[in-house]
Amino acid sequence: MKTQQFDIAVTQSNIDWLGKKVTGAHNGTIDLKEGALQLTDGQLTGGKFTIDTTSIKILDIADPATNAQFAEHLASDDFFAIQHYPEAFFEITAASGNNIEGNLTIKGITHPVGFTSQLQVAGDTLTATGKIIIDRTLYNIKYRSGNFFKDLGDTLIYNDFELNVSLTAKAVS
Protein backbone atom coordinates (compact mmCIF):
# COMPACT_ATOMS: atom_id res chain seq x y z
CA MET A 1 0.00 0.00 0.00
CA LYS A 2 1.16 3.48 -0.86
CA THR A 3 0.20 6.21 1.60
CA GLN A 4 0.67 9.88 0.77
CA GLN A 5 0.17 12.96 2.91
CA PHE A 6 -0.93 16.25 1.40
CA ASP A 7 -0.66 19.48 3.39
CA ILE A 8 -3.47 21.93 2.69
CA ALA A 9 -2.27 25.12 1.02
CA VAL A 10 -4.44 27.50 3.04
CA THR A 11 -3.85 30.50 0.74
CA GLN A 12 -5.14 28.46 -2.22
CA SER A 13 -8.10 26.97 -0.33
CA ASN A 14 -11.33 28.52 0.78
CA ILE A 15 -14.61 27.98 2.57
CA ASP A 16 -17.69 29.86 1.44
CA TRP A 17 -20.63 29.97 3.83
CA LEU A 18 -24.32 30.55 3.18
CA GLY A 19 -26.96 31.18 5.84
CA LYS A 20 -30.63 31.54 4.96
CA LYS A 21 -33.52 33.29 6.62
CA VAL A 22 -37.17 33.82 5.75
CA THR A 23 -36.46 37.10 3.95
CA GLY A 24 -33.31 36.05 2.09
CA ALA A 25 -29.76 34.90 2.75
CA HIS A 26 -26.29 36.07 3.69
CA ASN A 27 -23.00 34.71 2.43
CA GLY A 28 -19.32 35.10 3.00
CA THR A 29 -16.03 33.37 3.56
CA ILE A 30 -14.06 31.87 6.41
CA ASP A 31 -10.38 30.94 6.26
CA LEU A 32 -8.60 27.70 6.87
CA LYS A 33 -5.75 27.81 9.36
CA GLU A 34 -4.06 24.48 8.58
CA GLY A 35 -4.77 20.92 7.62
CA ALA A 36 -3.72 17.75 5.85
CA LEU A 37 -5.28 14.92 3.85
CA GLN A 38 -4.08 11.32 3.49
CA LEU A 39 -4.48 9.05 0.50
CA THR A 40 -3.83 5.34 0.44
CA ASP A 41 -3.50 3.80 -2.99
CA GLY A 42 -5.06 6.95 -4.46
CA GLN A 43 -8.13 6.87 -2.19
CA LEU A 44 -8.86 9.40 0.54
CA THR A 45 -8.39 7.65 3.90
CA GLY A 46 -8.06 10.48 6.39
CA GLY A 47 -7.45 14.08 7.12
CA LYS A 48 -8.33 17.04 9.22
CA PHE A 49 -8.34 20.78 9.04
CA THR A 50 -8.66 23.76 11.32
CA ILE A 51 -10.97 26.68 10.54
CA ASP A 52 -10.08 30.17 11.74
CA THR A 53 -13.44 31.45 13.06
CA THR A 54 -11.93 34.90 13.66
CA SER A 55 -11.61 35.32 9.87
CA ILE A 56 -15.34 35.20 9.06
CA LYS A 57 -16.29 37.76 6.42
CA ILE A 58 -19.67 38.84 5.02
CA LEU A 59 -19.67 39.40 1.26
CA ASP A 60 -23.27 40.40 0.55
CA ILE A 61 -23.49 43.55 2.72
CA ALA A 62 -21.78 46.50 1.01
CA ASP A 63 -22.37 49.19 3.66
CA PRO A 64 -19.24 49.16 5.89
CA ALA A 65 -21.06 50.02 9.12
CA THR A 66 -23.80 47.40 8.60
CA ASN A 67 -21.20 44.82 7.56
CA ALA A 68 -19.11 45.48 10.69
CA GLN A 69 -22.19 45.27 12.91
CA PHE A 70 -23.21 41.93 11.37
CA ALA A 71 -19.64 40.57 11.62
CA GLU A 72 -19.57 41.55 15.29
CA HIS A 73 -22.87 39.72 15.83
CA LEU A 74 -21.55 36.55 14.11
CA ALA A 75 -18.49 36.75 16.41
CA SER A 76 -20.70 37.05 19.52
CA ASP A 77 -22.02 34.31 21.78
CA ASP A 78 -25.29 34.37 19.75
CA PHE A 79 -23.36 32.69 16.94
CA PHE A 80 -19.71 31.54 16.96
CA ALA A 81 -18.36 32.99 20.24
CA ILE A 82 -14.97 33.55 18.63
CA GLN A 83 -13.46 35.08 21.75
CA HIS A 84 -13.79 31.69 23.45
CA TYR A 85 -13.63 29.49 20.33
CA PRO A 86 -11.27 31.05 17.75
CA GLU A 87 -11.08 27.75 15.87
CA ALA A 88 -13.42 25.07 14.57
CA PHE A 89 -12.23 21.62 13.48
CA PHE A 90 -13.13 18.91 11.00
CA GLU A 91 -11.65 15.41 11.08
CA ILE A 92 -12.42 12.64 8.60
CA THR A 93 -13.52 9.43 10.29
CA ALA A 94 -14.40 7.41 7.17
CA ALA A 95 -14.21 7.79 3.40
CA SER A 96 -15.70 5.55 0.76
CA GLY A 97 -15.48 6.74 -2.81
CA ASN A 98 -16.87 10.28 -2.84
CA ASN A 99 -18.69 9.89 0.49
CA ILE A 100 -16.98 11.49 3.47
CA GLU A 101 -17.89 11.09 7.13
CA GLY A 102 -16.28 13.14 9.84
CA ASN A 103 -16.54 14.98 13.10
CA LEU A 104 -17.14 18.72 13.04
CA THR A 105 -16.37 20.73 16.17
CA ILE A 106 -17.82 24.23 16.56
CA LYS A 107 -17.84 26.08 19.91
CA GLY A 108 -16.23 23.03 21.53
CA ILE A 109 -19.20 20.82 20.53
CA THR A 110 -18.57 17.86 18.21
CA HIS A 111 -21.11 16.14 15.95
CA PRO A 112 -20.77 13.76 12.99
CA VAL A 113 -21.40 15.13 9.50
CA GLY A 114 -21.48 13.45 6.12
CA PHE A 115 -21.18 14.86 2.62
CA THR A 116 -20.16 14.06 -0.94
CA SER A 117 -16.81 15.30 -2.21
CA GLN A 118 -15.00 15.54 -5.50
CA LEU A 119 -11.30 14.70 -5.36
CA GLN A 120 -8.61 15.03 -8.02
CA VAL A 121 -4.88 14.41 -7.92
CA ALA A 122 -2.60 15.87 -10.59
CA GLY A 123 1.08 15.28 -9.90
CA ASP A 124 1.84 16.53 -6.40
CA THR A 125 -1.38 18.60 -6.12
CA LEU A 126 -4.66 17.38 -4.68
CA THR A 127 -7.89 19.33 -5.01
CA ALA A 128 -11.06 18.48 -3.12
CA THR A 129 -14.47 20.13 -2.98
CA GLY A 130 -17.61 19.42 -1.03
CA LYS A 131 -20.72 21.01 0.42
CA ILE A 132 -21.42 20.40 4.10
CA ILE A 133 -24.92 21.15 5.41
CA ILE A 134 -24.83 21.93 9.13
CA ASP A 135 -27.65 22.24 11.66
CA ARG A 136 -26.37 25.19 13.68
CA THR A 137 -28.58 24.38 16.67
CA LEU A 138 -26.52 21.24 17.35
CA TYR A 139 -23.62 23.60 18.16
CA ASN A 140 -25.60 25.82 20.54
CA ILE A 141 -26.22 28.47 17.86
CA LYS A 142 -29.88 29.09 18.59
CA TYR A 143 -30.35 32.77 17.72
CA ARG A 144 -33.74 33.25 15.99
CA SER A 145 -34.21 29.50 15.50
CA GLY A 146 -37.80 28.37 15.19
CA ASN A 147 -36.89 25.34 17.32
CA PHE A 148 -36.28 27.56 20.35
CA PHE A 149 -38.23 30.78 19.80
CA LYS A 150 -41.89 31.28 18.90
CA ASP A 151 -43.55 33.91 16.72
CA LEU A 152 -40.37 34.99 14.93
CA GLY A 153 -42.27 35.73 11.72
CA ASP A 154 -39.99 37.06 9.03
CA THR A 155 -37.03 37.36 11.46
CA LEU A 156 -36.62 33.56 11.61
CA ILE A 157 -33.20 32.23 10.59
CA TYR A 158 -33.17 28.69 9.20
CA ASN A 159 -31.24 26.15 11.24
CA ASP A 160 -29.22 24.71 8.36
CA PHE A 161 -26.30 26.60 6.87
CA GLU A 162 -23.87 25.56 4.14
CA LEU A 163 -20.11 25.38 4.00
CA ASN A 164 -18.79 25.03 0.46
CA VAL A 165 -15.25 23.79 0.95
CA SER A 166 -12.57 23.96 -1.75
CA LEU A 167 -9.17 22.58 -0.76
CA THR A 168 -5.86 22.58 -2.59
CA ALA A 169 -3.12 20.48 -1.01
CA LYS A 170 0.50 19.70 -1.88
CA ALA A 171 2.16 16.32 -1.47
CA VAL A 172 4.65 16.06 1.37
CA SER A 173 7.95 14.58 0.19
TrEMBL record:
Entries under Gene3D superfamilies matching the protein = Lipid/polyisoprenoid-binding, YceI-like
Membrane-crossing residue ranges in chain numbering: none
- Which InterPro entries does UniProt cross-reference here? Lipid/polyisoprenoid-bd_YceI, TTHA0802/YceI-like_sf
- This protein's superkingdom? Bacteria
Q: Which residues form the Lipid/polyisoprenoid-binding YceI-like domain?
A: 5-170
Instruction: Please give the SMART domains that the UniProt record associates with this protein.
Output: YceI (SM00867)
State the protein's name: Polyisoprenoid-binding protein YceI
